[in-house]
# Entry
Amino acid sequence: MSTQKTISPIDGSVYVERTLADAAAVETALNKAVSAQKEWRKTSLAEREAVCRKALEYFLTNADEIGLELTWQMGRPVRYTANEIRKGFQERANYMISVASKALADVEVAEIPGFKRFIRRDPLGIVFVVAPWNYPYLTSVNSVIPAIMSGNAVILKHAQQTPLCAERYAAAFEYAGLPEGVFQYLHLSHDQVAEVIGDQRIDYVAFTGSVEGGHAVQKAINARFIIGGLELGGKDPAYVRADANLADAVENLVDGSFFNSGQSCCGIERIYVHQDVYEEFVNAFAELTKTYTLGDPTDSETTLGPMVRTSAAAFAQRQIDEAIAQGATALIDTKLFPSHQAGTPYLAPQVLINVNHSMEVMMEETFAPVVGIMPVSGDEEAIQLMNDSQYGLTASIWTTDIDAALLIGEQVETGTWFMNRCDYLDPALAWTGVKNSGRGCTLSTVGYEALTRPKSFHLKINA
# Structure
């Protein structure tokens, strides 16, 4: 049997080793899901809510333990990892549970004497969730909870780096009393993922990952008459106007750039600053960056952990080096961060100026604690540069003028437009991307639409 190993970025040790599911295990899981879903779809929303809230209780009760596991699996400092459960995960789960009755309610149409007509939202069947390692609970909860609430069965495949997250979901739903088979997980290879997507029993695919991975998922889906939600890469921009509260913008954009070692699809990777405040902004941004502590993420004092693997750090360093060779200036001396070492996942944060859009670091996703900052003459140039990207997940503006923010936001090609905040998912709003950032939507009442199909009832009375 094939196995997968989770190499901890902390020290290079094998933290988890799991056997991949064989063909028989995959077949059993699919058959079990089909049978379980036929019964689960008959349950009331109240029953589903009780189970999902009980599962959430399990996560909250075990948040510290889960957080430490997460630190060892992917390297985020332990001072932050439990909050993935206590904050974002809890907020999203609670919201999606609370709006289920509204989102799944029958759609009424105008009455006609002698007829009863309405549209019902039927569950799709089996939802296959393929989740990433960078925010393993936040990304997966967007689909898992609403899929269960909709009456679907779920099969979760988590990234090789974070297999324990899938197992935690299973433990939570077992604790909650979810009928066997409604939720299952499988540890799979990339080839096996494609095979599962191609199976006739899979009704929907929710994928979060790279553009390359999205193309592979789309190719597998194309052989079927199903659709998938694809949340892919980002090169998210921020625009700081001359009227911005600079202290607030600096504080939030530094965090938006470097939290989770920059390994966020909606993290800030490029910043455009009005020329009138550019120098002041850059100086303050660099100084705040220097206050980070890079090191062992199991140490509560560490604020910046290692990247997920050495190759990811090497990729980011190559982008930095190439930009410098092309004329960019690096503002952060890596000697300020003794843990920064070539050939390891430990990478110091870096701020680049004198950059332009001929440089890869400003155009291709870096997914690391690296940000480029450019001066702009005004709104028109900022809009042009923000839109000069193959990606469009989120973008932010920093200003005191809400009218300007709305006007500019209407012209920026993005799934989410922020004013005076960034790198946050509001579960009441649709989470979606444009261009190569993907397609489809999770969260909000709109997020339930992809997990159900409309079924029309046209009933003639007294025929």
Q: What stands out?
A: The longest helix spans residues 78-98.
